[in-house]
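Side project, low priority. Logging it here so it doesn't get lost.
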Amino acid sequence: MLRKSAYKSRQNGKTLLKYPPKFLCEKFTTYFCQLKGKFPNSYFYPSYCSNYLPFARFMNKKATLRLLLVYVFVAVSALAVQAQDIHFSQFYMSPLNLNPAMTGVMNCNHRLTANYRNQWASILKERAYNTYSASYDQKVPVGRYDYFGVGGTFWGDKAGASEFATIQARLSGSYAKKMGGYRRKAHYLVVGADLGVSNRSINSQQLQWPSQNNGGTFEPTQPGGVVADPSFYFVDMSAGLLWFSVFDEYNNLYFGAAFSHLNRANVSFQNQNIPLYGKLTAHFGGEFEVAQRVSMLPGVVSFFQGPSFQVNVGNSFKFLLGNSRRYHQAFQLGAWARVSNRLNQGKLMDALILSTRFDYEQFTLGFSYDINTSSLRTATNGNGAFEFSLLYKICGPERRGVYCPNF
């Protein structure tokens, strides 16, 4: 499933892919063009191959059919989304990327997070997706029960020989209003928004074009195409809501929604009007004590963007460690299933996500691994994405009782 933009225009009522996602600028581009007759309702279009697609090396005659099918799968999956954003499998270890309304929602005063994700390295090797994010947020008491939240996030993503990359820096804010309850039991409504500046770039010197094809041989001395704007900036805005109910220290419930890319910024490399698809995020979950010192944490996280969607459903078990109520020590084990769609080809289970998390006082360390379950597993042997997360909270005096779920 693709996570990047496909830059499109219209010609004779059909969609024309102007500058494709990362994988389409890699080794097997010319073979994708041969598939246009098999996918009449997809983004493939006759002039796509000859006029608009910067191609990479032709496949060596000795390359296996298996490897070809792998890249065809990746490309066709890529074309299913016009502009899917970055995502992390450890959703709540990257709260500001999930929903701006989660800014400042914590049981301490300050929070620092760092995330790193490496995806499809088994196929793309050094050209694999590498995604990183760092954020800081804090809560500020307002009146007797309410809070402001303020924070900032910086993330980046890069992959492919063309070094297709996006980086973003943004500021976020929220306001949490107590809607009912008392010291140990409370219900809150949180409203949040963020504003960011993004840069999208591509290394056009690494692209290979049809004009450089000499009977199946790449001729770098021949002139290639021109990318009008290989690096550009755009403004991005999002807003979100979050509701949570805390019943006691080990039982809570929450649900939220966010809408990203409110302004639908232009993301064309060719100085055309190619608006970014808006994205709807819906998520809910909770923590429920099932035995002494053991809790379950079910959840659903869904993304809907343009013609595509992704639904993640799973559960973790939390085990409290140690005998001290003063120090928080816990260990979690969980599994999630990710279901998505391929354009005009129905739904598929894309991955099984295995995760673990360690909490020791103010430190949290998380690991997860995406086991690929789609047809791409033939070449990847099930290898998907590795993810690492680190979270640190700075706590101070707090006399208002339990405020929110322990994300």
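Brief comment: Residues 7-77 form one domain.
Revisit when time allows.
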